[in-house]
Every structure is written in structure tokens, then in C-alpha cells.
């Protein structure tokens, strides 16, 4: 059966029109009952999450990369408890697919107690490490709702361990991809299916354990929904689930209506396609009219030959991760939230790739694009006084995700594969309307995600954490500084050799941009050292960052500076890898920053003295320990005058600017210069 | 029977419960923040007056004074603790500032954790320039890779002392596996510290304060203890001196969140965090024994929060799974007593993000300005206002008449902010607010009990706190507990609960024992783990006996129990189980442990994994020694069921169906054992109001407690 494009591409994330039965049920809802039982459903989703967290193995479950949702009988999401809002959309298409194609298929069918699975992006998911388990809820012989539980599993049997191969050239390099399929009946998983799954991955125990954990989470949720049905009747549940969607849609539309109509633009760039470096251009514009917003992403670079591609619907999923933390941070997650938003992409571009494209790094590509979208929101929301608050006017966490995967025998002699999630989860927060960004604010995709302690990493994986420190100059300068990310150094310990994979972006081109004169956060590559074993045996100091590592380590130790996305390679005992999580962008002009805050940052090492003097334009007293206030004021005044002198009228600037062109090596995946994908 | 005194110092009130000759009296006065001992003594005196004896006599005959307080936490919130320095593994100096990557979320309610844009890290307890890395390293197997150099330690010490440090915390990676590096540094400090500083700069080792896996919570717990140690000591010395001058001769005992009590010298300050509510749970457990109850949920509804605790299988065995003190994740073990934002001061509002859904809390008007009806400037409609408008509360007899309530003002605000928006009458709106908050609390209880693997219908609910008995019937619609118990002393329940506390210590060690081939090859697992298991338990036993003896008790009377934290290998969360064996002596002991783990997991999560490898992550020994016996409630002879003598009047009370009903009001003080009242009815005491709707029945039992049941 071919992929059902009608389901995937025709906006079916958006809610279906309410059925006559749902409308009738809604009209009978008592307002107080509605208040009570929607809270009950929320609580049930939370309980489901706790069950998964209790049972799960994947480090990403700890990272919060999970979702638990209740869907209407026809597959619209009514409410979800999520770690990452990305998954708000993950279950919708697979459920609608099963309803459309299998409900009446005598060879498959849908019955009470059936358990379904999907991890295929083409069928509405994100990428194949994101695995979803879903079940129908039957009452009186008919489906009245669905429940789902999703989690990210860092192993899919791809060409590289970890589920996200940098070298993937097409979908066929990315491992196990399963369209919506029945994997259990009568509330039990089928042994043959488990065998199939285990046979396709490097870490079968995790695959099966977490599959069973998701089923347990679904069963918990199902039980709670049925309790409500028993108490209030099926009609009440039908009406409530639909009303939740309609209510949130109305509320989001109302919120958007308050923003002045207009068009806002920004452009993002990416510096990798996975197996190699190269520039991608990702311009985005937002046109707001009445209660609708249209995002135009039609001029993005072409589909890449690596895994940095997205399907059209995935853009919408990642967008949900952003707005649920900022613009809609108090709105429940449902299909209704997506109603006012429309996304335009060009088929064949990296944001609307063909079905056979590799897409496993889509979760690294899209935060860069969607972070740019938050800048558009800040520009638009600044016009509305009730939104002029830090919770809305906040740059996002650094969207240039990075990860470090290890695979091999651990110190206990067991084969393990994982991502050391602390790097992904300790990103600097963006600066805000009235405050600095938070240093190490968390995971771009959600505020709930935690990193493991060093001792947790070291207990299961053959590594020593040599350092875990705030990155110097890691946050984008600004009147309000972007939060810094964290620098990590891991040494391979108690294992002869392991496979090391680093993933990520932002070693050449900044991905966390500033706003209103704020600067972007700096770029950062990966540094590896072939033999750092002398670090603890000699008198040298322990490094606290990649730069201090390069200073402190013997120069013949085999130092390599490499892009964040690098294919898997073996690394021996005593080898060291250093990677940083990025910082947030700056808000406002750095020369407007309170000099005392600059001094505090220098004292704590968040900002170097060089940056204090040359970016923030402060002048230190002779002792180097205090700021000379008067001289700083004077220095900044001169800088403003010089800026005016350097300025040119827009036309002449554009004329000169258009003569510039990056080297061809940087443009090999870019598409046509200067506008890559003209429509 | 010895006289006992139990004091609970809260932010607003200080309570003292005196138990003497089988009678219990209590005093409740305003807390005196400038001199806490003053409030404590005043509360005791107020109670003593009711016995008609002098203070000197009371103190002289008192066998034990137990003390619980939230004030350590208040000092923490106000950052009034000691100036500390931290010596940690070089390269990991920023770990306590990074937290688990998003420190800002710890201790925040979940809905605020969604607001990434408003995130803010808590103010650190140690300034960054007082965190110094020492080059040292131990690995996950306990092997020392690098030893600290004396020169480096001396240099770091000098820096800290120059900065005016008043306490030093040492926390190195894997120190719980091998504490030698921490101990060496402590020894160097002791040798090098200038004499003038000895004693005034205490040193805290993470391997001693909390020898458990995971460096961030271990370090934070050590820091918290160091931070509050001196402050708490000063407060208690002041109180100790005061009560000794009045004739008390025994040590002052502190109430712990572990469900026990201990002398100050045997107390980690963090053990006193949330001690009051946990004492209330111990009281519930003991009172429950009188009734033969094994499963009890405590439901304490106060002004701003609703606290609940679960007692299952006759034990206080449910611990906080992700403990946070203030904004700091810790890994100590304390009895779980959950708090949600639902109380008398909870504000009713409409969630526009959810189509105008009516919600109540978590925002609270707290006690200042408080509900609108307090007439202290509150402008938001609250639960207490709703209770007043419905006629459940008496505007002239609130807190025994100590506060007059302004019903007209509450009505005006409710009309404007709730009723008009709902298109309902003021009473219908108030009733809706009450229903929403009752259901919210009830659903939290039901979910929590279910997540622990139990059926809420097999529980009894103990309802206390100022607003508890007003709402307990509504709350129980969700929980469906068999019976609700309310108490005359409900307003001082926590202090009363403390009177049941024995000396109790908890010892924990991370052991990381892998049961390599569960069940199928228990012999192999037995050989691999028996020595570690037994040596750990023996060592903890030894320390426990010493500690109990140093409390002045006979260690032979010590009762111990063993708990294990277990998980499937690489699983993230641990499951806590009561150990079925006290030592591992045979392979069948291993099988028993594994079976217990699996059955527990099956109950709480619904599945187990037959072939997965299981680990014992840590072992916990609970050691308990009885002190002065708690006050058993006196049994009375049951009299007539007729409660008409206690009727103090009638007033219009609004019930969801049929609306206003002229409802009898009973005086709690005049109710006698045996009396029974069918709803609708209101029972009023000075500090407690019990609301019994139609279909409910309240009866006074032989222990003089009020039992509420649904009769149809």
C-alpha cells in the first residue's frame, strides 16, 4: 500500500470537522463537569508519563522526549502530556491511517485490546528513533477515543549506532522504519513482532523494554478514560474530547488577533548536511492577518544528500515545540492549537523532502529554522503591550542541537548504545525583554528535560567526565546577555575501544541569533584528543573547556578539531572528546549593558576580558578589577559616533553586499546563489 | 503516664500539644519570628493553663519535648544561612550551578516549568568564587585515579578562610564508593586550619552526610546541611536554654521528616524539612491502629496548600521519589507528603487558554491579604469566600469568632468575577468553585494512590487542617474511601502527631549490586552479592546501635527494618521495596528479593520484564527505639445517638441540590460519643467545621472522633 499522501500532506494534523454526534454531546456538557473532567484527563496523561518514566530505559526518556495523548475517535489530539511538544502531532496521522485503511480490512481490523506501533516519519512521525504506541478505547462495541504513548529510542539499527547516522544518504541507511502496524492483540504484545524488532537493532533489550513500557503507559491512560466513561457516559467523553480541541483553537485565534497585521522576516543558515560541511539558507517570513498566520518557507535550500531534511509536516511539529513554551505556554496541547497556522514549503527543498530522503537529523535542522521564527514573534509581539513581558519576548534556547553517541562494551562487559544527553539538554537560554538568558537552561524542545549526573553516565558507560563547565563567552552579547551553554569533556575509560558519534550544527555559522541589536551566540566545533590519559597522572591542571584542553594537553597527543556532525569512528581508551552545548542569543545592543553586569560576568568567567573590552566596550581601571564608569561612558559614546560614520544608505549597502559571495566549497548544497530555491 | 509536650512552629502560628494524665490540651499562639522560644513557651503556657498547673510544675514533670519547625526552610528561602566554601573535583566546579541542566525547573509547579521564557535560576547558596576544584579522581568502580595534593588543598583553604568562609563542604565524584580522597582533604584541613578557626568552621563530607549515588543531589544535600547547621543550632540553643531555665531536664528532641525524632546532635538539618506534616502522618498511623486501619490517606487542607500522605499496609513506607528542598534536588529519604496549590485561599479564575474553563488555584490569596471575606484587602474570589457564601462557614464564629468575616464583600466579588461570567447565581457559582476544588484534590489523591499500586477504595481518609472537614465529603467523591475521620484536635493535628514519634534513624548506602542472572541462577547472584550486602547491613547496624545509645536509649530495644532500592539495569527510576530478608544467607534469599521487586513493580506499573537484569541500587536501614509512649486516645462509653442537645441553631445553607435548605448547626464541643447526625448538617467547633451534605452521616465514636460515611 503506498503512503497515503492525502493524510500526510493535506493538513490532516488540523482537526477534522466535528461530527453531529460530537456537536450534540458538546451541547449537553455541563460547564462545571467539563472543568472537572478535563483536569482529570490531564492528570491521567501525567500518570501515564510517570509510568513510562518509571519503566523506561532510553536515556531520552529521562531527557523528557516522550508524549502521552488522548485522541478523539477520529484521531484528533484532544490533550497531551508531553516532554517535548514535538510529539503533539506524532500520533495523529498514524491513528487516522489505521482508521482509514485497516478498520474495515478483514486481514487487519481494529478490535478492543489491539496495540499499534509506528516510527515512520513518512506516515506522520518525526524520525524513526521516535516510536509511538497507540490503542483504541472501545465502549459498547465502538471506538470512542484513542490513547498513545511516544518516546525517543537512541537505537534503530541504522548504519551508525544511535539511530541518527550522519552519513545517511537516503531512508535506506536509517534502520528500522515501521508504518502503522498492529503489534498486539487482547492487550498483549505479539512475540513474533518483538522478535522482528529485536532482530533489527543493536540494543534489543532497550527496544523491547521501552515498547512494553509504552504499552503500560497506554493501558494506564485507557483505564482512566474508561473510568470517566463509566461515571459520566460515553457521550460525555465524546463531547469533552471535541470541545477541548475547539476551545483551544478559539483561544489561540483570539490571542493572535491581538497582534497587528503585517509581514515579518528573518533568515537562518545551517553549516552542515551531516556527512560534510556546507551552507544551507533557510529564510522565513510570517504574514499575520486577522486571526491567521502564514509562514512562508518556500525559499529554503534544496533537499540535501544527507540526513538534514524534513518532511513538510515535521515543520509544523517542531513549530509546536516552540509556541508551547512561549506564545502558548498556558494553552493545553491539542490539534486545535494548530488551526490558525499555515506553513508553505517547496517540494524538493530540504524542508519538504521526497519520501526517500534521509531525515534522521531533522530534529537538528528544524530548531535552527524555528528559532528564527521566534525572532519574528518577538518583533510582532513587541507591538502589543500585554505581550511585552519576558515570557513572550524571549529568544529561545540555543537551537543548534548537539549530541554525543557512544556504543560498545562498557566497564561491566556489556554492549551498550546511547547518547550522553547532558550535551543536548544544557543549552543556554535566549536573552529576554528585561533579563539575561539562563545559563544552561535545558533542552530546546521542552522545559522539563533533565540531564544525567556525571555519576549516572559513568556508571553505565565507559567514560570519565573530565569537565562539565559553563562555556566562556558562550552566550550572545547584548544589553541582556544570552545564557551560556556548557562545555563537556569525556575520556574513554575502562574500555579498550568504543564507537563515537558526534552530531550537531553550529561550528561555523551561528544558529542562536540575537534581536534588537543583540549578537548571536558563538560557534563551537568538536575537539578530540587521541591520547589524553596523562591528564590525571601528571601535574598539569584539569582542563575546564575545549580551549583550555588545547592549551594544557601535550601537542603530540593527537588533537583534532572537527565539525559537530562527524561519522562514527573508533576511539581508544584514554581518548578524549570535547563538545559544547550552544548559548542563547543576545537581546539589545551590548554597549547598553550595565557595566556592573559585564564586570560580574568577567569575574565568573562567563565573559572574557577581551569581549568585555571589545564587544561590551567597557573600560577597566588600571587594577583590571574594577570598571571605570566615566571612561566606559566615553568609550561607548565614541563607538556610537563611529557606527554612524560607518553607516551607508541602504541602496549602496545592498549594492556592495550583493557583490559578495561565499566560496564555492561552502555552497555545494546551497542551491542556486543567492536565492536557493526560487518559486 | 509521663507528660509530653510537642511543639510545632510554623510561619504564622506556633502550636503546643500537652499530653498529661491521659488528657490532651493545646495552645496556639502567633509565631514570634524575632525570638522563637517566646512563642513556643507562650503556646505551652496556654496549654498548661487548661490543666490548671504552674509552668514550673509542668516543665519539671515533662518527660520529653519534641519540636518541629518549618523555620529551617524559611531561613533557606531568605538566604540567611552560613557563608560556605565548596571543594569539589576539579573540572566539575560548575556542576552545582548547572544542576541537572535546567536547575530553574526544580521545585517549580509543572505549569510554570512550561514557561521557558520566564525561567530563572535560584540564587546559589555558595558564591561562585568560593567553589574550588581540587585535582583528584575516583572512577565508577571506586578506583582512585588521582589523589589530591596537600599543597593544592592548603592553597584552597587559605583562599576560603580569607573570604570569611564559615563552613566547608567537600564533595568529590564517586566518594560514596571510596571516600578516601574526601577524608584526606578533611584531614589536611583539620591539620592546617588555624587554631582560632577550629570549631567555628565545620567541615561536611558528602560521603558522610549522604553516601549515595549521583553527585548533584548528594552535593546539594551536604551544602544544605552545612548552610543551615549553625542557624538551626543557635535557634535551638536559645529555646533549650529557655525551657531548661523553667525546669525541663531532658534533651530537646527534633521531629524528622523520616517519621522519627532525634537529638540535635544526631540530626541533619535537612531531616527537619517538612517534619510537621510527616508527624501528622505518624499520628494518623497510630490513631489508625486503634481502628485496625492499615491503609490511610491523610488530607490536610490549610490556607494555601493541600497536603496529602499515603500510609499503606500499616507502614510509612512511601518516600518522596524526586525530593526537592526549596529549589534544590536532593537524594535524601523522607516520607512523602505531597503538597498541591489548593487551600482556603486558592483563587477561582477562568482559563482563557482553555475556552474559559473555571479553575481554582494554584494561585492563592494566602493569609495576607487573604480571602475577600477577611476584609484585609483581598480582591480575588477564593475557596473560603465560597464556603462562606454557601453558608458552610459562620461569619460570626470563624476561628471561634476570632475573625469576623465580611459576607457582603465576598458576595460582590463573587458576583462580578465568577457568577456573572458563568451566568449563574452567586451561590451556584460558589458551589461550582467548591466542586472544582474538591474534585481537584480528590483526583490528586486517587491518582497518587493508584500510582503506588493500591486501590483508593481500600483506604480511610483522615481529614484535618482548618478547611479539611469542610471539604472532605466532596473530596471523597473521587477517592471513594470507605470512611472519613475528622478530629476535634484537627487544627493541631501535626503537633499531636509528633507525640507518637519514637527515635528513628535512617541509614543509606549505594551498593550497586547486580543480580547477574536473576532467578535462573540465583547461586551465581548469591556468590556475587552476599558479602557486599551483608557487610553493608552489618556496618549500618553497628552505627545505628551506637547512635541509639548516644540518644540515651537502650540499643537492645532497637527495632530495625531493611529496605532496598532496586531497578532493572539501565532503567532510570528505582523501585523501593521492604526487604524480605535481613541478610543474604542462601540463594533462595536472592529469589525472595527478586520476587518482591517484581510483584511491587507489577502493582505500580502493570508489567515486569522476565529476562532483564536486576540491580540493588542501595540499601536502607531504618532503626527505631521507643521513647515516651504516645498518647493513646481515651475510649469512652457510647451514649445515645440523639445529638439534639448539641444543636446550636439553624441557618440557610446552599447545597448543590436542591439549593437553600434551613440546616441545623451543631456545636462540636457538645457532641458526645455515640451521637449521630444525618446530613444535611453543619458541625461547628472553634477551629473545625464539618460539612455533612444530604446522604452523609457523621457520628461520634468511642474515641470521641467524628466518623463521616455515605449512607446512600
Q: CATH first level of the domain at 81-228 in chain B: which class?
A: Alpha Beta
Question: Compute the gyration radius of chain B: what is it?
Answer: 27 Å
What is the CATH topology assignment of the domain at 81-228 in chain B? Rossmann fold
Report the principal-axis shape of chain A.
Answer: globular
Extract low-pLDDT stretches of chain A: none
Shape descriptor of chain B reads globular
- Name the chain pair with the biggest interface and residue counts per chain: A-B, 104 and 79 residues
**Terminal Cα separation of chain A, in Å?**
32 Å
Q: What structural class results from the helix and strand content of chain A?
A: alpha+beta
Rg over alpha carbons of chain A: 26 Å
Q: How many DSSP E strands of chain B?
A: 32
Number of contiguous helices of chain B:
17
Please bin the fraction of helical residues of chain B: 25-40%
Q: State the oligomer.
A: heterodimer
Give the percentage of residues in beta strands of chain A: 15-25%
CATH architecture of the domain at 81-228 in chain B: 3-Layer(aba) Sandwich
| Major sheet attributes of chain A | 7 strands, antiparallel
List the strand order in the largest sheet of chain B: 17-14-13-20-21-32-31-28
How many DSSP-defined strands of chain A? 20
Major sheet details of chain B: 8 strands, mixed
Task: Name the poorly predicted regions of chain B.
Answer: none
